[in-house]
Each structure stands twice: as structure tokens, then as C-alpha cells.
Amino acid sequence: MHRHTIYILLLATFCGLVLATITGCGRKNATEDVIITVNDPGEKLFPIDDYFQVEKRVYVSAEGEYLLSDIHDIYVTDDYAFILDYSQSISKIDLASGEIIAQLHQQGRGPQDYLYPLGISGDDNYLYLLDAGSNIHVYDFDLKHQDKISMDIPSSSSFCKIKDGYMFLNPFENDSIGKFIITDGRGRLKDSYLKKQREDTPKGVVSATAYYTQKFFIPDSFGKVFCHNSKDDAVYLYDSKKMIKKCQFKLDDDLLGTPGVYIKQIFSPDGNILVNYFTNGKGDYAYYDKDCNLIAQGIGGGEVPFFPLCQIGPKLVTAFTTDDELGAELPGKSIQAQIIIHRSK
């Protein structure tokens, strides 16, 4: 069986930033009125190295014992990267040597097995996997199974570990349980936010929508979580006690009729806001400070393949494959991939 060298490059691939204008940012106590209008990106290229430094670049070989498929999700610590791939395996990569040092594939219905894995998260001590059965599997950093928790939630496609519990995206919110669900450490429901308004309520009606990306939450090391509600492209901040609306993004009316135009993801490096804006398969970006003032803008760098783009603490991380000849998800095949870690300067 032919094996390929795998390059894992931990990188937030910022191809450029979109031009944007801001209204309402001067009102300190009215964050719900802060609306950022995203416009045509124009012709300016965004020099990513002016704003983000490359913290680490790692090349990982797949010539050893383990294989790697297309990358579905990633979590990094100071020393290791954990890759969930489309063969439903979790690989542990040593960031110093670039070696895949352990791999887990335990799909099934046993007490330590997972059903279809949807995403991974982590904290200082453990790695967490959400599966399609609404179970959280807890692993130590040697990929040894520690616990399996049945969550008291509806089906979810996105989650993150927060202080003293978990946060989930609920794609079917109603007037009794909201879009963002908080549980304790044993999966028991504690609270929810952004509940669907009743039909007789004139404002704020939110329709139930199925979501397929895993990155709606950005937890930091202080117990706070930035949440992206893709229904109205608003950013909310959860501080472990309450959730407040920080700002809302609005696509320019001139772009609404353009096919394939939407805000894909929102990040918050160092409390600033980075918006991944998608137009016709190209990724553009807008970068704002903590008060929603525009810092940088520019155009994208071409076609953007499907790959996870995420933030882990202050680090901006992505992983993407580069081996076109093998294609995606071929069983028993290793693929070339690139992965880089960026951090704000």
C-alpha cells in the first residue's frame, strides 16, 4: 500500500479581509445596536503577517504505523495536535517531532465505543468527543478512554467544553429550550439562550435550521465563550453566568442577490473579531478591534477547499489536505495535508 508524507500545518488561512463599515459602535451600553455592514471586498490584499504571527509550523510523516484520512476537526495543546478525520479515527501528533504517536478508532455500541463522531474539544486535562448519539466521550491525552456521558440535550452538531460543563448548539430551538444549551459536567441541562419567540411576538422569531459546521463556539481560558448565531449573524458573549449580544453583522444589500454569499465563521483572537466572509467559493475576511472598529480588510486568495478552520484559545488553527490524486476518504490510504498555528501579535 502506497503511503504518502503528511504535512500538518497548523494555520488560520486568512486569504484576505472584506471591506466593511460600522454603525452604532460608540454606544457603550447598547451592544445590541452595534451593527456591522459587510460590503464588497474590493481589491486590497490583507497582509496576514502584519496582524498574525506564525507560532508553529509542523510537518508530520505518515510513513510509520498510522494512516491519516481527510481532516474533519482538530484540537491542539502546547505539545500535541489531535486530529479527527473522516475515517472516524483520532490521531495524536507530537508537535515537536511531527510524528503520529497514537491513534484511536473505536466505533461501535459498546460502553467505550462512539457512534458517528461529530467533533472534538478539550481543556487543560482532557480531550472530549461528541458523537451522533448525544454522548460525550472523555479521553486523557494518551487517548485512553476515561468516561462516557449521556447528554440531556436534543441532537447537536456543535459543542465545546466550558468551565464546569459543556455548551451545545441546538438546531431545533423552541420557546422552552434555546439555540445555545448549557449543561453541567454530567450532561444535565442547566440553562439555554436565544429561545424561539412565540408566533404572536412581533420581533426576534428564529426558525429551526440544521447546521453542519462544528465551529460556532470560541472558548477562552477565562471561562468566557464567544458564540456565533449564524441565523442572524450575531456574536454573543457567554461569561458563565449570562449571555449578552456583542454585535451583529449585516450583509450589504448590493450583495444579497449574489449567489453563495454568506458569513461562514466568526473568530475572536484576543477579544478582537475576525469575520470569515464567503463569496462564490472564495474566503474574504474582515478584522475588527474589541469595540468593533475596522482594523484591516482585503480580498480572498482564491478557491477555498472544505477544511476545518477554528480558534483554540488565542491560537488560530486549520488543517487541510493537499494530496489531490488520492481524493477524500479513501479507506486504507494516507493523504498529504498541511497544517500551521497562527497567533495574534
Radius of gyration: 20 Å
Determine the CATH superfamily: TolB, C-terminal domain
Instruction: Please provide the ordered H/E string of secondary-structure elements.
Output: EEEEEEEEEEEEEEEEEEEEEEEEEE
End-to-end gap: 43 Å
Roughly what is the average pLDDT, rounded to an integer?
76
* Largest sheet features: 6 strands, mixed
CATH class descriptor: Mainly Beta
Question: Which residue ranges are poorly predicted, with pLDDT under 50 across at least 5 consecutive positions?
Answer: 1-31, 200-214, 301-306, 325-330
Given the C-alpha coordinates, what overall shape results?
Answer: globular
Secondary structure category: mainly beta
Bin the helical content: under 10%
Number of helices: 0
The fold-level CATH name is Neuraminidase
Instruction: Kindly report the spatial arrangement of strands forming the biggest sheet.
Output: 1-2-19-18-17-16
* Beta fraction: 35-45%
- Domain count: the total is 1
Q: What is the number of beta strands?
A: 26
Describe the structure.
- The protein is mostly beta strands.
- The protein has strands spanning 20-23, 35-38, 52-57, 71-76, 80-85, 90-94, 100-104, 117-122, 127-131, 135-139, 145-150, 159-162, 165-169, 180-184, 189-193, 217-219, 225-229, 234-238, 243-251, 261-267, 273-279, 282-288, 294-298, 309-312, 315-321, 337-344.
- It has a single domain (20-344), classed as TolB, C-terminal domain (Neuraminidase), CATH 2.120.10.
- A 6-stranded mixed beta sheet has the order 1-2-19-18-17-16, with no helix packed on it.
- A hairpin with a 2-residue loop joins β21 and β22 (282-288).
- Residues 1-31, 200-214, 301-306 and 325-330 have low confidence and may be disordered.
